[in-house]
């Protein structure tokens, strides 16, 4: 069996490598020559637990290779980005371009699977495009009977940092344009997925993916809204959540400086865009989470202003704990706004960054390590709950003014400035 994976990013590359390990011959297609060269030399261009060893193994055994150009295959898996534009409209042009790329080499009996998070109807749109480009092949659809090509939508649902484990163990939702398409795709996933593979329609599967991430966004928005309300009321939100979660049917998530990453902060807009009138809660949740970032900037500024001569350590830049991914990171947004305002007083501590991210170039802010920050800085804005930060004991934080947006230092005493005004506490 020959499998082609179009798009060698955070999902495509791990998927390609796992399929290769299950014994199939896999060709990874990417538009970047750098990515293609890196993979062909057995290395990886993204950080993900255990991915480097896996890729090296399957490339050296000749099971995975990468190319800029497409070749005939039995299965095509499309894993390209689906960003949103400035006005939050989904952009499916990469998906349609991937379909254009594979169209010339398609043959009867092939399976085409879309994995990219997509607005409802994208798989149908891809089928329509393929039908136009290849009128000689019978594409699936109502009333078509037995089609030459099987087309399905099978969203990934893996968590960065656990991608390889979750690709194998998570249940999969397999949405066929027709039930026959779904069965064909099911046979493919069964080869490397241990979780349950459940078939449905392509449109339902598209919606399932959007709903999962919107559910999480709405729940995080609840926690973030609560944190602002509790702060004004002078109540410790972390304690409130901990206690409320002892109720058998309550499970509140954790507040933070906003929602980052390229999925949860994006996908709900696909639903809002498709039905703005009815997607009221989903839109509001997005706004609440975005607003939390502004709120954190304002509160951090209030604290920094209480200690005018002192350096400020912003702890963490990643979009969440223990990963090196800074895309759409609320921590970067907060720290960059503080850096533009306070310049060289701002020190950035990020164990996962090797150099100063571009957002900070020219601001005067510098990257320093945690030990130096604990020696040099009087004010701390804690933005990411990396394990390294959690492990700083209370006695190393004595005398620091701390704004802890993740609630990992509950024992931090409030520092009162010499002016006597009370500072924001941890
Ligand atoms: N966050 C909070 N509080 C929480 C949980 C998360 O503030 O209690 C923040 C994080 O700090 C981060 C953001 O939300 O900034 C998103 O992090 P995450 O861990 O919730 O999710 P992602 O973006 O890493 O991965 C999500 C997952 N979706 C769900 O859990 C429903 C993953 O399963 C998806 O595969 C992935 O999106 C995707 O690719 O769509």
Explain what this protein looks like in three dimensions.
This protein starts with a strand and ends in a 22-residue tail after the last strand. The model has no long low-confidence stretch (mean pLDDT 96). It has two domains: 2-209, NAD(P)-binding Rossmann-like Domain (Rossmann fold, 3-Layer(aba) Sandwich); 256-426, NAD(P)-binding Rossmann-like Domain (Rossmann fold, 3-Layer(aba) Sandwich). It has helices at residues 12-21, 33-40, 51-60, 93-102, 122-133, 163-169, 179-190, 202-233, 237-244, 267-274, 280-306, 330-342, 370-376, 387-390, and strands at 2-6, 25-29, 64-67, 75-78, 111-114, 150-153, 172-176, 197-201, 311-315, 346-349, 366-367, 377-382, 401-404. The chain has 426 residues and is of the alpha/beta class. Helix 4 runs parallel beside helix 5, helix 10 packs across helix 11 and helix 11 packs parallel to helix 12. Strands 3-2-1-4-5-6-7-8 form an eight-stranded mixed β-sheet, sandwiched between helices. Helices cover 39% and strands 13% of the residues. The site of ligand SAJ has 20 residues, from helix 8.
Going across the biggest sheet, name each strand in turn. 3-2-1-4-5-6-7-8
Whole-number total of structural domains: 2
Question: What is the CATH homologous superfamily assignment of the largest domain?
Answer: NAD(P)-binding Rossmann-like Domain
Q: What is the CA-atom radius of gyration, in angstroms?
A: 24 Å
Q: Number of helix segments?
A: 14
Number of strands: 13
What hetero molecules are in the model? ligand SAJ
Strand content: 5-15%
The arrangement of helices and strands along the chain is EHEHHEEHEHEHEHEHHHHEHEEHEHE
CATH fold group of the largest domain: Rossmann fold
Second-tier CATH architecture of the largest domain: 3-Layer(aba) Sandwich
Portion of residues within helices = 25-40%
Secondary structural class: alpha/beta
Distance between the termini: 57 Å
Shape, per Cα inertia axes:
elongated
| Average pLDDT taken over every residue | 96
CATH class call of the largest domain: Alpha Beta
């Amino acid at each position: 069996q020959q499998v082609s994976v179009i798009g060698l990013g955070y999902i495509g590359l791990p998927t390609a490598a796992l399929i290769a390990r299950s014994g199939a011959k896999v060709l990874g297609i990417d538009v970047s020559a750098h990515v293609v060269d890196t993979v062909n030399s057995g290395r990886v261009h993204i950080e993900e637990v255990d991915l480097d060893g896996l890729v090296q193994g399957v490339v050296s055994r000749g099971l995975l290779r990468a190319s800029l150009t497409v070749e005939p295959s039995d299965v095509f898996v499309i894993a390209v980005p689906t960003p949103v534009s400035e006005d939050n409209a989904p952009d499916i042009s990469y998906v349609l371009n991937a379909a254009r790329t594979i169209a010339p080499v398609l043959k009867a009996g092939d399976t085409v699977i879309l994995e990219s998070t997509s607005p409802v109807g994208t798989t149908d749109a891809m089928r329509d495009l393929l039908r136009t480009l290849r009128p000689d092949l019978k594409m699936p659809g109502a009333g078509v009977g037995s089609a030459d090509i099987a087309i399905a939508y099978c969203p990934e649902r893996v968590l960065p940092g656990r991608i390889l484990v979750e690709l194998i163990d998570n249940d999969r939702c397999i949405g066929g344009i027709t039930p026959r398409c779904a069965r064909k795709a099911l046979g493919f996933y069964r080869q490397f997925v241990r979780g349950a593979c459940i078939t449905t329609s392509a449109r339902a599967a598209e919606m399932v993916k959007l709903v999962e991430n919107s559910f999480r966004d709405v729940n995080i928005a609840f926690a973030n809204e609560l944190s602002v309300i509790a702060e004004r009321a002078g109540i410790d939100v972390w304690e409130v959540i901990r206690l409320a979660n002892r109720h058998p049917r309550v499970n509140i998530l954790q507040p933070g400086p906003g929602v980052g990453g390229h999925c949860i902060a994006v996908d709900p807009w696909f639903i809002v865009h498709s039905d703005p009138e009815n997607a009221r809660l989903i839109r509001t949740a997005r706004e609440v989470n975005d607003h939390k970032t502004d709120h954190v900037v304002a509160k951090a500024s209030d604290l920094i202003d209480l200690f005018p001569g002192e350096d400020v350590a912003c702890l963490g830049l990643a979009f969440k704990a223990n990963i090196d991914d800074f895309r759409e990171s609320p921590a970067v947004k907060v720290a960059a706004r503080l850096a533009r305002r306070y310049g060289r007083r701002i020190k950035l501590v990020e164990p996962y960054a090797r150099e100063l991210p571009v957002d900070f170039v020219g601001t005067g802010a510098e990257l320093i390590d945690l030990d130096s920050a604990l020696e040099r800085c009087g004010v701390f804005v804690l933005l990411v709950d990396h394990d390294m930060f959690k492990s700083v004991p209370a006695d190393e934080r004595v005398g620091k003014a701390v704004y802890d947006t993740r609630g990992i230092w509950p024992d931090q005493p409030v520092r009162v400035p010499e002016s006597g005004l009370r500072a924001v506490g941890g």
